[in-house]
Specification:
Helix content is 24%, strand content 20%. By secondary structure, it is α+β, with helices and mostly antiparallel strands. The chain has one domain.
């Protein structure tokens, strides 16, 4: 009998049906605007009737994927809910009980699985994450600060006279210069393409069955989700694993300086750790030196494989982008890579650390990642617990992801080379988890279904 991983290879080759993009929230399928600014807002619901009234008011402003960026609109808004939020809205217990166990337990309760210990432990997360007070998560995106305020005002009006609806968290985010992340690398370069969602954007990878990302469609196993119940609730919905990271840019720079004999070697080691040069050029295509023209070319900077680099001489096995997405590097193994994709929506917060500064200035800076998929356990949780944390799948033992791994000053990073591989020791924790949550992002009809409960 074939294992569940092996059976994915036998998935029907028929294309996925066209997605109902008018019923799917924009954040699921459409990239953020460029340039972008925005704000995350978390609400607590103290009364179900008021919660549903708030939802009815905000619904007209929730952006669908078919018109994710209409020129006449100043920005767009997405909305999702924790299990506690759905409970606070009065969703029937039978529906709550039908959700997958990882969603019902919540991210904080699964810290042992996710390797969230030490500085990353839920006890250290920002309030209200990991508590029963995080109910509704709003994500607001715009192209300018003025447009952002317009959309935030619409969101505020949806609950300003409802005294049992409270704002428990707000965080602004925005694009850094040249579209880089706080570590200085070009951001937002890789995402799979959901079949049936329309033409693939530049830089997307091979198409993956739509059911991997949106419920109501066949996934890579040929299966269609049958929970949560009822169908009206799950159709065109998905799950979000939200992670807020603080990035210790100064520690990253100091480590590179200590391990390298020249500025050029610093850049090479940084590229080896990430799998790309800071410009975005992948090591798989530019193994020896940076190629800025390749880095900015959206049609080329994600069009590569590891088929000719099975010894990791170009891109190390443990490089960040190769660990979180091995592409065809595992094609001869039992792991079906297409079962472990998710859609990634990342934003940055805080000011960049000035160039050349090696000491931390105390500012909060980092990224927030919305990792979207229909299967939390075999998508986000698998990648976090296996590919990010456990090096066995690449025969590297306890070696973790060098960039986002929960290293504690004893981390190791292996760089294959001839005649002798190089091993970097003493990797500190460059990234710390500041917040995390599992959310359910319903389709627009499902939002109306929730809003009309009790009527």
């Amino acid at each position: 009998m074939l294992s569940s991983e092996e059976s994915a290879a036998n998935t029907l080759s028929t294309p996925s049906p066209a997605l109902e993009t008018s019923d799917i929230q924009a954040a699921v399928l459409r990239p953020r605007p460029k340039p972008y600014c925005g704000e995350y807002v978390v609400l607590r619901i103290g009364n179900a009737d008021q919660g549903r009234e708030m939802l009815r008011r905000i619904l007209p402003h929730v952006a669908p994927a078919d018109e994710w960026w209409v020129p006449s609109l100043p920005g767009w808004l997405g909305i999702s809910f924790t299990l506690e939020g759905l409970k606070a809205l009065g969703v029937p217990q039978a529906s709550l009980d039908s959700f997958p166990i990882e969603f019902r337990q919540g991210m904080a309760a699964r810290a042992a699985i996710l390797n969230d210990f030490g500085a990353n432990a839920p006890a250290n997360w920002e309030y209200p994450f990991g508590t029963a007070d995080a109910h509704v998560a709003l994500a607001v995106y715009a192209k300018s600060d003025q447009d952002l305020e317009t959309v935030l005002d619409l969101a505020h009006k949806s609950h300003k006279d409802l005294d049992q609806i409270s704002v428990v968290y707000r965080m602004q985010f925005g694009e850094l210069p040249d579209g880089r992340n706080p570590f200085g690398f070009k951001d937002g370069l890789h995402n799979p393409h959901a079949e049936g969602s329309g033409p693939a954007e530049a830089g997307t990878e091979a198409s993956v069955k739509a059911g991997e990302f949106v419920m109501g469609y066949p996934d890579e196993r040929g299966e269609t989700a049958n929970v949560p119940i009822p169908l009206e609730l799950r159709r065109n919905g998905t799950f979000i694993a939200m992670r807020k990271f603080h990035m210790d840019v100064a520690a990253f720079r100091r480590y590179l300086r200590a391990e390298a004999s020249s500025p050029e070697e610093e850049e090479l080691i940084a590229a080896k750790m990430v799998g790309r040069w800071r410009s975005g050029a992948p090591l798989a295509l530019a193994p020896d030196r940076d190629d800025p023209a390749l880095g900015i070319d959206g049609n080329r900077n994600n069009d590569f494989s590891y088929a000719d680099d099975m010894k990791g001489m170009k891109c190390p096995f443990s490089a960040h982008i190769r660990r979180v997405n091995p592409r065809d590097a595992l094609k001869n193994d039992v792991v079906a890579v297409n079962l472990h994709h998710f859609l990634r929506r990342g934003t940055n917060y805080g000011p960049p650390l000035p160039e050349g500064v090696l000491e931390d200035d105390g500012a909060e800076r980092g990224g927030v990642f919305l990792l979207i998929g229909a299967h939390l356990h075999r998508q986000f949780e698998f990648i976090q617990s296996q590919w990010v944390t456990d090096g066995n799948f690449i025969s590297h033992g306890t070696e973790q992801d060098p960039l986002i791994g929960n290293n504690d000053g004893e981390g190791i990073f292996t760089i294959p080379r001839v005649p002798v591989r190089r091993r970097l020791h003493g990797l500190p924790r460059f990234v710390s988890v500041r917040a995390g949550e599992y959310c359910f992002m319903p389709g627009l009809r499902a939002l109306r279904w929730i809003a009309d409960l009790g009527r």
